[in-house]
Amino acid sequence: MLSLVKGPSQVVESPVVQVSGTHSVVRVTKGRVSALAFVRSSDPKQLKLQTLRDDDESTVESLQHSTKEQEIVPTNPEIVLIFLDRWLDVLQDYFALSTLTIEANYDIMCNLMQELVQAGAPYITDINALKEYVPFKSTWSSRILSTTNQLAKSYSAHQQVETMSNGIQRNVPWRRPNVKYTQNELFVDITERINVVLSPRHHRQKKTLLKGQYQQQQQQQQYTQELFTKMAVLEGQVDFTSHLSGVPDVVINFNLNGHRLENPSFHRCVRLDRWLNNGDTVSFIPPDGKSTLMQYTLDLDQYSSSKAHRNYGVVIPEFRQGLGVKKNEFEIGVKLNMLRNVSKVDNLKITISTETGATVKILRLSHGDLQTKSQGTFEWVFDTEMSLGTNALLRGVVELPDSNPKSKEQEDDDSVLPIPHWPKTIALDYTIKGALPSGIRVSSVKVSGLNVNPYKGVKYVTSVGDFVIR
Question: Tens digit of pLDDT for each residue in 96-105?
Answer without folding.
Answer: 888 888 888 8
